[in-house]
Structures are given as structure tokens and as C-alpha cells.
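Researcher: I'd like a structural prediction for the single chain below. Treat it as a standalone chain; there are no partners to consider.
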Amino acid sequence: MPSSSLVPAPPPPPFPVPARRAVDSDRRRTSASAILRSVLAHGPVARSTIARLTGLSPASVTDHCNRLTALGLIQEAATLRRSNGVGRPHVPVDLDDSRFVVGGVHVAVPYTTVALLDLRGRVVAERRLNHGERDETAPAPTHVLANAAAGLRALLAAAPDRVPLGVGVATGGWVDRDSGTIVEHPLLGWRDVRAREVIHALTGLPVHVDGHARALVNGERLFGRSAGGGSVLHLFVGNVVDAAFATHDEVHHGPRSQAGAIAHLPLAGGTERCDCGRTGCLQAELSERTLCRRAREAGVIRTSDPLHILAAAAEGDPVAVRLLLHRARMVGRAAGLLLDVLNPDTVVVTEMGAVHREDCLAALREEVGPDRAAAVVPTSFPDSVLAVAGGSVALDVLYRDPLSTPSSTPSIRSSGSSPGTI
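Model: Treating it as a single chain, here is the predicted structure.
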């Protein structure tokens, strides 16, 4: 046997080079995300403090801060800081929230909300676009999404100093985040609406789509009371009733993003007949449609606007107050059911009465029970919840992968092309 055959072959690499590159890319993305979130939560903040908060090396923090500065996401703060008032001053960094915005689109049953949000999740501009008088025909998705794109263009035209990074679209029903599709929205009568394709075709901007309850969980974790907290459940009660659950900074989506569909969960004490044929389903019992119908039957309002019930209660109408308190208690019953199943650290409730009236929030918490009442809080965005829902879809993507921010951002198209097939 030739001696050369006795020479052992060199060992193979521990894993293929492409896999190593993927791991390195994931590590860079994760590190950049942790740094940007630290700046959001604590800025202006010294790089040494960021290193302590994130566990990253000072050199890595400096490198990533330089990258984020070059992308225009952070900047050095004007004021120097000294540690305990002595030693070499630190130059803290902070978000640069003066330039970039994201567009937010929230499609509700009677109207669409379009907005611009800055990097702190604050609403810079907002507009409501009514779908028109509803009859037997549901609003066409082509028309609604084209109007939303035109609304975003108008908001950006009025803010020429702002640069759009992308658009987030949120709505109720079944929304598949991965494909950017509104799979089913029964109240709108929509099926398989390719919202991401349509809005991108009309604006030229990157578009991300998700359900509004999941979007608001991300908004709460980035900009609200649940920032840096533990597990969070969000219960959204409007015309659509749905939920989302997040733990370890991850929102559970499930296969094809179907998690959180609670519309047909049975609610003890419910009396409303559901379209599915059963009585007491969550959405049938708690929806704003049901609330407004009951208010009209009681002579409180003559419209289909739930805010008119809130206004009547504020003026002392006892029937309006009774309707809102009853709904709040039933929402508390639903929250208690979800607490039993998921046991989150915090339950965030977006429901009109609990958000705007202390008596409704108290009634909701009373129904949950004294041992868990403190875990239930109203949304952090009482005056802009729908705008924040849309914008948070895009902002969540930004904060998870800030290095994907383009160094030169695309301009939004001045006029819409054909919205294409939906």
C-alpha cells in the first residue's frame, strides 16, 4: 500500500461555509436589533451602557452603532455625559426620529385609517377614509386599498421632509403574514386579498401585512407599557374580536398565521345569535355592531357609530352607561377565559369602554377577579390605536432587522398604477 494512503485526509469543516455565513448574518441581525431596541428604550444612552444592557462587547457595540448611524437610524446626542460626574465624558447615542417614517394602514369595517409614524411609534399624521354607505355590497378591496395608497401619498406630500421606509397593513380576520394576504375577513366579505402586492404596486414601498391584534402586541412591546416585560396577551374588541399572544419577544402566529381566532369561542351568559348558528360566540356578543344595534333599539343613538354611545354616556345617559358596563363585564369574562388558558403576565385590552371610562375598566377587572385584575390594562394608545396597529407592522420588521434598512430609500410613487388582480 503506498505510504501516501496512510496520510489522513484533512477533517471536513465543522459545517458548510454557507451555513457559517447564515449564522454570522443572524448574529449580526440579532446584535443590531438588541442595540437599536436599547437605544429606543434608554436613549440618550452611552455605548458602554448599551454593552452592559445587551451583553455585547464594546467593540461590537461601537461597530453596530457606526452602522446604524450610517443608515440614519441613530445619532450622537448633543449633550455629553460623565460617569458620576468625573472622568472622560461619554457621547451618548439616541434615535434619529426626525427623518424616517413608516406608513400605517388599518382596514376596519366602516373605514380605513392611514397614518405616518416615526421611529418611536408616534403618529406624525393621520387620516380616516370612509368606505362609503354600506348596503348589501361589501366595500371592494381594490377600491379600499387604492384609496389607502392615495391617502398615504397625500400624507407624505404634506410632509416633504419625511422619508418613508415602508408600509404596514393591519386588519382583523385571518391574515397570513408570510404571503401578505388577507385570507378571510368575514365582516368585509373579503377572501384571498393580496394586500402586500396591491399596496406595493401603488406605492413602490416595501409592504408588510399582519393581523391587528398581533400588530398591537408588537406595538405594546416596543412603545407601550409592556416594553421589556414578560408574556403579553392582547384582546382586541371592535367590530372584529380577536387576540394575540407573545412570549420571549415572539408573537405566536401558528400555521398560516391562524392563531388568535377567537370569534367563535363560547361566552358564558351570551345571548346573541351568531351567523354560525350558535348562541353566545365572542364576536357576535361583543362586537360594536351588536352594541350599536342594542343602543338603537334602546333609543340611545340613531347611528351605527359606537362613539356616539360613548358620548351619550359622558352626558349622563343611564342606558348608554348600562350598555357599556354590560359589555365591559362580558369582555372581562372573555379575558378571564383567555387568562385561564394562556396565563400571561399582562393582558392588554383594546375595547372602547375600558379605554375611555374608569367605571368600565373597573367592571372588566372585577369580572376577571381580584387575584388577576392588576394584570389587565387598557391599550397604551387610546387615541391612535388603529394608526399604531398599521404602523407597528412595519416598525416591528425594522427593529428586528435594522441592518436591512436601505442606505438610499425609495420614493413613494406620485400616482397609482393599476392595483392589479386581487
